[in-house]
Amino acid sequence: MKALLWLLALFVLAVVVSLATRFNEAYLLLVFPSYRAEITLNLALILGTVAFALLYALLRTLTLTASSYFVSRRKPSRGRWPQRL
């Protein structure tokens, strides 16, 4: 049931974004030396959001990988060695 509500919220968000960007006629002008690029503001916002999500996922993956690597390299404390009978 919780997944269904999340899916419904995602569809509602998609409709709201679609309606909000329908009437947006703004452009973003990127000027580099000897180049000019003009893209819609909607595309710039989508590209920024995707870039942020990819960078977040990459950094999160690297952080989790590094932390699990260093935890596995640590020696167990004195009380955690297996007891031999």
Distance between the termini: 51 Å
The proportion of residues in beta strands is 5-15%
Strands, total number: 2
Number of domains: 1
Name the shape in a single word.
flat
Report Rg: 24 Å
SSE order, one letter for each helix or strand: HEEH
Oligomer: single chain
The helix content is 55-70%
The SS-based structural class is: alpha+beta
Q: Give the neighbour order of strands across the main sheet.
A: 1-2
**Strand count, sense and closure of the main sheet?**
2 strands, antiparallel
* Uncertain regions spanning at least 5 consecutive residues: none
Number of distinct helices: 2
Average pLDDT number = 85
Task: Give an account of the 3D structure.
- The chain is flat.
- It contains 2 helices and 2 strands.
- The mean pLDDT is about 85.
- A two-stranded antiparallel sheet has the order 1-2.
- The protein has one domain (about 1-75).
- It has about 80 residues and is α+β, with helices and mostly antiparallel strands.
Layout of secondary structure:
Blueprint: H1 2-22, E1 27-32, E2 35-40, H2 41-73
Antiparallel strand pairs: 1-2
Short description:
The chain has one domain. Helix content is 64%, strand content 14%. It has two helices and two strands; from the N terminus they run αββα.
Tag the structure with descriptive keywords:
two-stranded antiparallel sheet, alpha+beta, 2 strands, 2 helices, 85 residues, flat
